[in-house]
Amino acid sequence: MRITTHGSYLIQLARYPRVFPVNCYFIREDDGLTLVDTGLPGSATTILDAARGLGPPICRIVLTHAHSDHLGSLDALHQLLPEAEVLISTRDARFLAGDMSLNADEPQAKLRGGYQTVTTRPSRTVEHDDRIGSLQVVRTPGHTPGHIALRDLRDGTLIAGDAFQTQAGVAVAGTLRLLFPFPALATWHRPTALASAQHLLALKPTRLVVGHGDMLENPLEAMERAITIAQSGLREGQPHGA
Asked: Would you kindly state where each structural domain of the chain is located, as residue ranges?
């Protein structure tokens, strides 16, 4: 695992199993560390070792969404850290228990990507604009119905989950990058994902970090280009993931 610090508060934990890079993140808070996403199954020990090297305890675990590459080590971590708070959006929390139904007011598109039923239940669920320590919850549906991003109000860092990717180029969820197609192929509803990406751009983040790919400083121009490409793909009627 590659451990990299960005700014005063963010620590990136990057794993590269085969050709599928996956990131999770520590956020420094006054009471300890917030872990954002838990990576693939088998990541728990590595995450705990990284935390011990930093010093502060992991006080809470936040999931950006319910795909298995982001919650794969949740059960193992919860067993090892039973006192740590577990948070996810109210909408995606249903997937953790195996409820794959869509709401009547949601686009009735096929759910995509790997959803994993887990035994861990959230300590609490969150909604748009809630606060988790220094992080503001930003509702960003599209990749999944209840996807969230997290904005650090101290320095403008945006933890975008899979609303964007930077692996194989900056792209909005649903826009296919042939060298790394997996986030696009796992996106539930592309028009909704595009609207969420536009909302994130309007927040004017100073730093963009994502579930798959490297961190990007001063990301606005790259985000704008990615949104333009996503808009063009929808206008041209490209098939899902193209």
From this structure: 2-235
**218 closest CA partner among 62, 7, 3, 17:** 7
* Tens-place pLDDT, residues 136-170: 999 999 999 999 999 999 999 999 999 999 999 99
pTM for this one?
0.96
Question: d(Cα 160, Cα 157) in Å, to the nearest integer?
Answer: 9
CATH superfamily of 2-235: Ribonuclease Z/Hydroxyacylglutathione hydrolase-like (3.60.15.10)
- Average pLDDT of the chain is 96
Contacts of 209 (CB under 8 A, 6+ apart): 6, 10, 12, 23, 25, 157, 158, 159, 160, 215, 216
Q: What angle do CA 112, 130, 30 make, to 5 degrees?
A: 110
Q: Which of 97, 40, 23 is nearest to 74 (CA)?
A: 40
d(CA 52, CA 40): 20
Kind of pairing between the strands at 85-89 and 58-62: parallel
| N-terminal to C-terminal alpha carbon distance within the chain | 31
